[in-house]
Amino acid sequence: DLFDVETNAHLFKYDSNYGRFPGEVKVHDGGLVVNGQPIRNFAVRDPAAIPWKDVGVDIVVESTGLFVTGPKAAAHLEAGARK
Predict the structure, then answer these.
(1) Confidence band (pLDDT; 50, 70, 90) for 1?
(2) Which residue, of 13, 23, 52, 62, is most buried by count of CB atoms within 10 Å of its CB?
(3) What is the pTM of this model?
(4) Residue 57, class by beta-carbon neighbours within 10 Å (0-12 exposed, 13-18 middle, 19+ buried)?
């Protein structure tokens, strides 16, 4: 998401569809921590620049609606995602 991590934490905690998240949501070291589990946050416009391989991501679900053709979605694979 292109929002800063603080905004993402707030939106996660107070979701307009699902309501308030009952667990703990905080920001630490540039990422989210949800119920003690760290979640990396990348505000990167180009999917080829997201370090998927470096963080051990196997599968990326492209849900932005911007990279829906094969060649555009392949940028995630170029960045190291397996699928």
Answers:
(1) low
(2) 52
(3) 0.71
(4) middle
- Sign of the Cα pseudo-torsion (49, 50, 55, 58, in order): negative
Q: Count H helices, E strands: the chain?
A: 2, 5
The model's pLDDT over 12-60, given as tens digits with 9 standing for 90+, comes to: 999 999 999 999 999 999 899 999 999 988 888 899 999 999 989 999 9
pLDDT at 40: 87
Nearest partner of 40 among 54, 30, 49, judged by Cα: 30
> What does the buried/exposed string (b/e) look like for 28-46 if buried means 16 or more CB atoms within 10 Å of the residue's CB?
eeebbebeeeeeebeeeee
Q: Which two structure tokens, joined as six digits, stand for 72?
A: 């555009």
Residue holding tokens 């416009």? Answer: 45
